[in-house]
Amino acid sequence: MPERKKVLALCGSTRSKSTNLNFIEAVAALGNQSFEINMYPSLAALPHFNPDLDTDTPPSEVAEFRRLIVESDGVLICTPEYALGVPGSLKNALDWLVSSCELSHKPVALITAATSGAKAHESLLGTLQMIEAEVGEKSQLLISFAKTKINYSSEITDKITLAAIEELIEAFTFSMHSKVLSHPTTE
């Protein structure tokens, strides 16, 4: 059996009991044979992006965030849609990664779980593409009317959504295991 990969999860919602957190917990349970999910504690704790502070010695919270990204084999992002866009705390976190390239060629699984979500999903895919994150077609999922598809115990109650998440987990796991082959390090 292949080794379990390390995944850093970013929740786009800052609510303590959000639907998006429920989906992260569901992915962690369903994918626990393939990877271990470590939850980033709070995107809201990162300072507002400021290019003047984006130096070789960024704020300590940013340095720690970047370190966790580097040490992970992949990143799981699960986010709602706010005002037809990406939540500010998530966009701010990604802004801190633009110049430092931690997400460049890093496997990313993206779940947008919202009432609609299409605009945020599209916007986030554009940002991730610009910073060269590897988000495969099967490693992304838009879950509309998300609250009707999962319960408060993080159990997916919709069979179609469950099948889609299982497919996402399989594709994401494959991308993490094949990353070494597609982007070998040079020494």
From TrEMBL:
Gene Ontology cellular-component terms for this entry are: cytosol
Q: Native species of this protein?
A: Segetibacter aerophilus
User: By its UniProt entry, which InterPro entries does this protein fall under?
Assistant: Flavoprotein-like_sf, FMN_Rdtase-like_dom, NAD(P)H-dep_reductase
Q: What is this protein called?
A: FMN reductase
Domain of life of the organism encoding this protein: Bacteria
Matching entries from Gene3D superfamilies are given as: 3.40.50.360
Any single GO molecular-function term of the entry would be:
FMN binding
Which PANTHER family does this one have?
A: CHROMATE REDUCTASE, NAD(P)H-DEPENDENT FMN REDUCTASE LOT6
What Pfam families does this protein map onto?
FMN_red (PF03358)
Q: Where is the NADPH-dependent FMN reductase-like domain?
A: 6-146
